[in-house]
Amino acid sequence: MRRSGRRQDMDTPDSGGMTPLGRKTAETGINFTSTTRFSRGLTFIRTHTLFGQSPTRRIIPQTSLLQENADPQKIAFLLRKQWTLYSVTPMYKFSYGNLKEYSRLLSAFVAAEKQKGLAVEVGNDLGIKVTLSTLLGLKGTDQDQVAILVQIASRSQLPFENAENKVVWSGWFCCISGDDLLESVPEDFTCLSLFLANGAESYTAIVGSWFQKTFDCYFSRLTISPLNLAWMAAMWTGCKVDSHMAATELVFSVPCIPQSLDISYAIHPEDAKALWDTVQKTPGEVTQEEVNLFMDCLYSHFHRHFKIHLSATRLVKVSTSIASAHCDGNIKILHSKHLIGVLTLLTELAISQIQ
Fold first, then answer.
1. Fewer Cβ in 10 A, N or C end of the chain?
2. What SS3 state is found at 229?
3. What is the average per-residue pLDDT within 178-194?
4. What is the pTM for the complete model shown?
5. Nearest CA-CA partner of 168 in 195, 147, 198
């Protein structure tokens, strides 16, 4: 059952735990462990960085433009797909100069895992091809590490020559505007704290296992709290969109027996933007007080029309013209213009999860 709020004139305010990647993929027999090198590096980061604290204000990035060397085709590939989010600890001895060798080794590893552990010789024709490449131009600051795209392609088994490879899984690493963490990472570590995956979970587990074993890093699912979903609703509602604007939709979960109930609350984009403009006090930044006031106005409006207290429910999904995000850690980014801004917030959440 779903209930939706119809368009109304919006109220204006008054003046006054981490889940390891391997636990979800028991069928692959993959175990993720950390080593002494990794533990030592993580301990160093902990002593220089504050984690797990919800900020009282967030700065909106001054520039949302991609750098000039960005590949439009690759950037377009990242948009309008549902990505599952992971937090990744810094990688030990990762080298951008060895991407071709990493591709070769990971291809053999994926093929071996798909063949249930049978020995596979590196360099043989495996029917599986893994490619690691750079995502140039995807930076919030000049200090950010270069993002990495990982793709798994499977060659068609049809009996004719020159069969094209079909991409069956994709993932990418990035760390956008992560200057505070980068300053505290030891020299031998590369910080790409946010990982996004699209495709079968079995491939995600295999790729994650290889990276963890090779670079002494650790993957964990990145979920999004109702508080951070509220931040996203407020921040993304305030963004300007040149093309068609979609409704701002909030989905709330109501615990019920024997099954839960979802309530969908759709607000016309112009109404949502007008409300946010009355709430935001300082251009360029958003405060927790403003987010709370924005949500309280929406709750009040909904209660007046439907007699339901949304404050007693749990916010589980936010959809806007900029992006959509679910509490399970799934996201879809819709506009390249706001790609940097969305990834900046997600990078912050990924870094805060390192414990």
1. N
2. helix
3. 83
4. 0.83
5. 198
